[in-house]
Specification:
Blueprint (H helix, E strand, L loop, with lengths): L1 E7 L4 H12 L4 E7 L4 E6 L3 H7 L6 E2 L1
Antiparallel strand pairs: 1-3, 1-4, 2-3
């Protein structure tokens, strides 16, 4: 399953890397692709939005 989410506060390649690492660590995530220009993140796998949001709890990024 593939879903696209918007993540606010991503500004650079480092931000994209951080979000990718956080999302990749969530159980059920198979792949993550960040489009920094549109602030959209494509997540492949069987995972709930709440789990992704929780993975960003200690970061400045906000899952919409």
């Amino acid at each position: 399953m593939e879903k696209i989410y918007e993540v606010d506060n991503m500004k650079c390649d480092g931000c994209a890397k951080n979000v990718t690492e956080k999302f990749s660590a969530v159980s059920g995530v198979e792949a993550v692709k960040v489009d920094l220009e549109t602030k959209k993140v494509t997540v492949v796998g069987d995972v709930k939005k709440e789990a992704l949001a929780k993975s960003l709890a200690d970061t400045p990024y906000v899952l919409k």
